[in-house]
Write a structure and sequence with these properties.
Layout lengths: L4 E10 L8 E5 L4 E5 L6 H17 L7 E6 L10 H8 L3 E7 L5 E2 L9 H14 L11 E4 L2 E4 L45 H9 L3 H4 L7 H17 L1 H15 L1
Parallel strand pairs: 1-4
Antiparallel strand pairs: 1-2, 2-3, 3-5, 4-5, 6-7, 7-8
Helix pairs in contact: 1-4, 3-7, 4-6
Bound molecules: adenosine-5'-triphosphate (ATP) and magnesium ion.
Protein name: HipA-like kinase domain-containing protein
Pfam family, one: HipA_2
Organism: Kibdelosporangium banguiense
Length: 253
Amino acid sequence: MELRTVEATRYVTPLREGGSLPGLIEADDLGMYVLKFRGAGHGLKALTAEIIVGELARRLGFRVPEIVLVNLDPALSKAEPDQEVQELLATSGGLNLGFDYLPGSFDFNPVIRDPGAELASRLLWLDALTLNVDRSWRNPNLLLWHRDVWLIDHGAALYFHHNFRPGWKPADSYRFDAHDHVMLPAAGPLSNLDVTSQMLTEVLELVPDDWLESDGIFTATQARAAYLEFFESRLAHASSWLNDLEAARAARV
Ligand SMILES: Nc1ncnc2c1ncn2[C@@H]1O[C@H](COP(=O)(O)OP(=O)(O)OP(=O)(O)O)[C@@H](O)[C@H]1O
Ligand SMILES: [Mg+2]
């Protein structure tokens, strides 16, 4: 299985909210996508985390906008008056990451709509598994669309990959601070989700090889093996971090 690849045909507008300067683009399939640029400061590791965590979430039953690879011709920058955007386009030739644009969606706030204890618990667990530190009540990175909660923005997850070096091994434990997680007040009792090794292999296959090799440390095969090792170790240690998470949750109720 592969992600669909589309060709960017028009840069529509920047989405000013985003820290990585995401933009709205139109593609040759006439779809509109939120584009995360390979040339943006967050880099290819952030885009890699978006694919791995977003696609794992989808396989676990969460709603995630379709993720596509977007081929971009840097010549598109010539039509762009804004200098910052022009530079972003000019340095982002090749494959970028796109998310199906959800028109009319808005930021999800659990005060406005109760997410339900089950979704809240499951999402808290997913973020703890993947070390996603970007789901606080200040910046939940959740959209409400057609009355459902959609997950976005997983670029800060899997932060251990910034430490990849030859001989890298997963740690027995990782810092994951749940106290300002947007779902903590709504979550019910926590339990492990069923992450299968087939899911993990599948999602790792979706990441373009050259993104995995971009830091010059691992080959794509080695990088996939390293991510897989992380997940296997994190799952093997789940009872320990699940305990901490449950304690944080129980303290809130
Ligand atoms: N698929 C989508 N459909 C509609 N709007 C979206 C979509 N993805 C993102 N947005 C909007 O764009 C904003 C920025 O997106 P996102 O959080 O993914 O970018 P970011 O640069 O990583 O942001 P930050 O680092 O500031 O959290 C979101 O808060 C949301 O309002
Ligand atoms: Mg965001």
